[in-house]
């Protein structure tokens, strides 16, 4: 298969490509956490679902302050970021029961950072067998759950409701 048609994404892609400024600065300021898929906030950071996930449950942990590298954060901001990363991993474990995680930081365009001037940590839940024939046969990822549905499950679980 050479193509997987997804015409419903045109509206979304057009909107994302026309955004001005930093999404990691504008989304938390809007106060529309559900619309922006912001799961948690702390004093210095927030967690957000990735709109272009590598796998179901792919989230990012982002400092509130707009900096391009971890080296520009204060010790307090780094501690806050790491505590939120751990809490997010625990939430994903409790909600989705993955077999493992990929956790990483891309610093700079050469390292693969899609948003190069606002450092963030990716956390990607992984399951045995989650790589199937689709990426091999058609360079296509299959995401098994919508962001809205997953957002609701994560928020419900974070508030202690099963």
Description:
By secondary structure, the protein is of the alpha+beta class. It has one domain: HIT family, subunit A (2-Layer Sandwich), CATH 3.30.428.10. It has helices at residues 9-17, 23-30, 33-36, 75-96, 133-138, 147-158, and strands at residues 38-41, 45-49, 59-63, 100-104, 121-126. The chain has a five-stranded antiparallel sheet with strand order 1-2-3-5-4, sandwiched between helices. Strand 1 and strand 2 (45-49) form a beta hairpin. The longest helix is centred in the middle third of the chain and has 22 residues, at 75-96.
Short description:
With 162 residues, the protein is an alpha+beta fold. It has helices at residues 9-17, 23-30, 33-36, 75-96, 133-138, 147-158; strands spanning 38-41, 45-49, 59-63, 100-104, 121-126. The chain has one domain (21-158): HIT family, subunit A, CATH 3.30.428.
